[in-house]
Design brief:
By secondary structure, the protein is α/β, with parallel strands linked by helices. It is built from seven helices and eleven strands. The strands form three sheets. Strands 5-2-1-6-7-11-10 form a seven-stranded mixed beta sheet, with helices on both faces. A two-stranded antiparallel sheet has the order 3-4. A two-stranded parallel ribbon has the order 8-9.
Length: 240
């Protein structure tokens, strides 16, 4: 891994949308907005307010059509991701940015939006644990880690894993020293009293309850993945 010349100004941005999980965006923002010699902007379909899954409002800097070419694109997840899987403006934006971006950085089920843009084919990737079974439908190789780096694609597990991933991205842009300085400034030193942070450590009743709550959205995500897979197979057959 080689770092970018510190004299090179970096343009970092996030695609935000209704019913995203705000921590998928704001967690990484804490680190990425502090990258030396960089500018951070947020983008949405238009410049009106965006509401997260629980009503927190954000005001995008620019619309997708106004976005410059980015060095890093952050794609957060959340239930609202599913409504965008067939939105060609959004999927086309991600696909177009990926052609020239240094890195595409997905958090949680933002990976599935990247999948719909064709960015996961043959790539090692991760996502929220409830959606891991969806990844192969987009041609990805699922990896059950909090942060997975495969070339220019960085993906993370659910929600808080985005903070871990953002520090990795900082290290790839400006070096480990910068990542550690930002980590210290953020006082990012998790020391929770609970052990339910992953399916492997959660009490069985907690795991069952959360899995049941996610069942409906997980089913919709599987359906979208099957549509993508069927469409991709059609393209391949047509090409032959």
């Amino acid at each position: 891994m080689h770092n970018i010349d510190p004299e090179t100004h970096l343009t970092i941005g996030a695609f935000i949308y209704d019913d995203m999980d705000q921590c998928d965006f704001t967690g990484p923002f804490e680190a990425l907005s502090r990258v030396p010699n960089s500018t951070f902007k947020s983008f949405a379909k238009d410049t009106g307010p965006v509401r997260d899954l629980y009503g927190l409002r954000f005001l995008p800097d620019l619309s997708l059509s106004q976005a410059p070419q980015l060095d890093v694109l952050l794609v957060p997840g959340g239930h609202g991701q599913e409504a965008l899987m067939d939105d060609e403006e959004v999927i086309g934006f991600i696909r177009s940015q990926a052609r020239h971006a240094r890195y595409i950085f997905s958090v949680c089920t933002g990976a599935l939006l990247c999948g719909a843009a064709g960015l996961l084919e043959g790539k090692r990737a991760t996502t929220h644990w409830t959606a891991m079974g969806v990844l192969p439908l987009y041609g990805a190789i699922p990896v059950n880690d909090r942060v997975v780096v495969d070339g220019d694609l960085i993906s993370t597990g659910g929600v808080t894993a985005g903070i871990d991933g953002s520090l990795v991205v900082v290290s790839m842009l400006r070096g480990v020293q910068s990542a550690q300085e930002i980590q210290l400034y953020m006082a990012y030193d998790p020391q929770t009293s609970f052990t339910a942070g992953s399916p492997g450590t959660a009490p069985p009743d907690v795991l069952h309850t959360v899995t049941e709550h996610a069942k409906a959205i997980t089913a919709r995500r599987m359906d979208a993945g099957r549509r993508y897979q069927a469409s991709s197979m059609h393209v391949v057959r047509t090409a032959h």
